[in-house]
């Protein structure tokens, strides 16, 4: 026993993993820079907060937290299922979409299986693949968008799973219905395609694919959604997946018994019904988008048109430097170094006031 090193204890693939490093806590930023207010535009949270109806429902649910939650989130599953016109056994609720992505890998990926995705894209695909000992294959984006033909070319008989982030985080771009249809014609039937649609509710483009069609065709697809973004419930950790029953049943086998807490379930149920809040979020998001497009253009900063609540912009200088200067002014953005695009930054669309403060701060940085 004496000579066993920590790394010898880990499962294969775990040693190469880098633990997730969360952003600096807001309280720490406040203390360090002597600030009272922070504008967080780094994690694509909802700048309008949470649906007031969801908040009221969660307050009520607090009284019952001495009891375990309903393990299968039945009420919420039924509501989601009704909304999409599918059976409730085609829905699974998880402890955030992150947790759903892990369930997908746990249920499907064996050691040596290939998992393909676009690059840059959402980092969790890599960690869940490596946790399961899968071979992770990254296919570069084309014009900041998932290159589905190039992904299709990389499929081999070892390919088990393909993650398509649509719209894509961090670039905000989307693949269309037509591109997806062509891709699905090529994908072998024994290969699972997980469409991560965390930002689907923000998409206004009519060419956005209706992936539910593949569920109805009983193709091996899983659609991943979250309550963290448009519904403003990131802090409660709740997301869901939909797919043909045979695949959702596999996810159910690996999920924890009481994965989703009572308060989150109550909040999500109420948030789904609050159309007024959703419309308000969409309006503010669209205004923010148009404002930032205009201001970035004036500043000569190229950006990728976005279908989400964030924007990927080329600041024309080291974004880590800009990040630090903005931080001193209480504005937090996500610099692009983690995606090997050091001049780029991913910036969440804030309220009009927050967006104006961001632009004023950027102008000051440039002029200095
Ligand atoms: C593309 C994508 N998928 C999944 C998630 C995770 O969402 P959740 O907060 O539900 O875990 C995020 C969060 O930022 C995301 O951007």
From TrEMBL:
Domain of life assignment: Bacteria
Q: A single GO BP annotation from the record?
A: L-histidine biosynthetic process
Keywords of this entry: Amino-acid biosynthesis, Aminotransferase, Histidine biosynthesis, Pyridoxal phosphate, Transferase
Among Pfam families, the record links this protein to:
Aminotran_1_2
Q: Which cofactor does it need?
A: pyridoxal 5'-phosphate
InterPro entries this protein is in?
Answer: Aminotransferase_I/II_large, HisP_aminotrans, HistidinolP_aminotransfase, PyrdxlP-dep_Trfase, PyrdxlP-dep_Trfase_major, PyrdxlP-dep_Trfase_small
Name any one GO molecular function: pyridoxal phosphate binding
Q: What pathway annotation does it carry? A: Amino-acid biosynthesis; L-histidine biosynthesis; L-histidine from 5-phospho-alpha-D-ribose 1-diphosphate: step 7/9
Where N6-(pyridoxal phosphate)lysine occurs, the residues are 229
All copies of domain Aminotransferase class I/classII large, residue ranges: 37-362
Spell out the reaction equation it catalyses.
Answer: L-histidinol phosphate + 2-oxoglutarate = 3-(imidazol-4-yl)-2-oxopropyl phosphate + L-glutamate
E.C. number, please?
Answer: 2.6.1.9
Sorted alphabetically, which Gene3D superfamilies does this protein's record hold?
Aspartate Aminotransferase, domain 1, Type I PLP-dependent aspartate aminotransferase-like (Major domain)
User: Which HAMAP family does this UniProt record tie to the protein?
Assistant: HisC_aminotrans_2
The family assignment reads: Belongs to the class-II pyridoxal-phosphate-dependent aminotransferase family. Histidinol-phosphate aminotransferase subfamily.
Oligomeric and partner information: Homodimer.
The protein here is known as Histidinol-phosphate aminotransferase
Species of the source = Formimonas warabiya
Q: Which gene encodes it?
A: hisC
């Amino acid at each position: 026993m004496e000579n066993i090193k920590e790394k010898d204890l880990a499962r294969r693939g775990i040693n190469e993993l880098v633990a997730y490093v969360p952003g600096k806590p807001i309280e720490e930023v406040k203390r360090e820079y002597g600030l009272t207010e922070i504008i967080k535009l780094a994690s694509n949270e909802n700048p309008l907060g949470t649906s007031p109806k969801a908040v009221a429902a969660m307050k009520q649910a607090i009284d019952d937290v001495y009891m375990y939650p309903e393990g299968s989130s039945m009420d919420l599953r039924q509501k989601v299922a009704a909304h999409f016109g599918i059976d409730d056994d085609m829905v699974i609720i998880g402890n955030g979409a992150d947790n759903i992505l892990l369930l997908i890998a746990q249920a499907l990926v064996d050691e040596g299986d290939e998992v393909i995705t676009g690059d840059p894209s959402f980092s969790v695909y890599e960690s869940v693949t490596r946790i399961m000992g899968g071979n992770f294959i990254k296919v570069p984006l084309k014009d900041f968008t998932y290159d589905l033909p190039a992904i299709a070319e990389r499929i081999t008989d070892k390919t088990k799973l393909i993650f398509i982030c649509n719209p894509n985080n961090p670039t905000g771009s989307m693949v269309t219905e037509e591109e997806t249809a062509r891709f699905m014609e090529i994908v072998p039937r024994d290969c699972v395609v997980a469409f991560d649609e965390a930002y689907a509710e923000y998409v206004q483009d009519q060419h956005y694919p209706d992936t539910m069609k593949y569920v109805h065709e009983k193709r091996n697809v899983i659609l991943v959604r979250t309550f963290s973004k448009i519904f403003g419930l990131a802090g409660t950790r709740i997301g869901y997946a939909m797919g043909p029953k045979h695949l959702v049943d596999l996810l159910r086998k690996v999920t924890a018994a009481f994965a989703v807490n009572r308060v989150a379930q109550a909040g999500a149920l109420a948030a789904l019904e609050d159309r007024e809040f959703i419309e308000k979020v969409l309006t503010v998001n669209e205004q923010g988008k148009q404002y930032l497009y205009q201001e970035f253009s004036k500043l000569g900063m190229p950006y990728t048109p976005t279908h989400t609540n964030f924007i990927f912009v080329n600041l024309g200088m080291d974004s880590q430097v800009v990040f630090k200067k903005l931080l001193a002014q209480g504005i937090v953005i996500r610099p692009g170094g983690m995606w090997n695009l050091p001049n780029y930054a991913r910036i969440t669309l804030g309220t009009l006031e927050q967006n104006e403060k961001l632009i004023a701060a950027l102008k000051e940085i440039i002029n200095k």
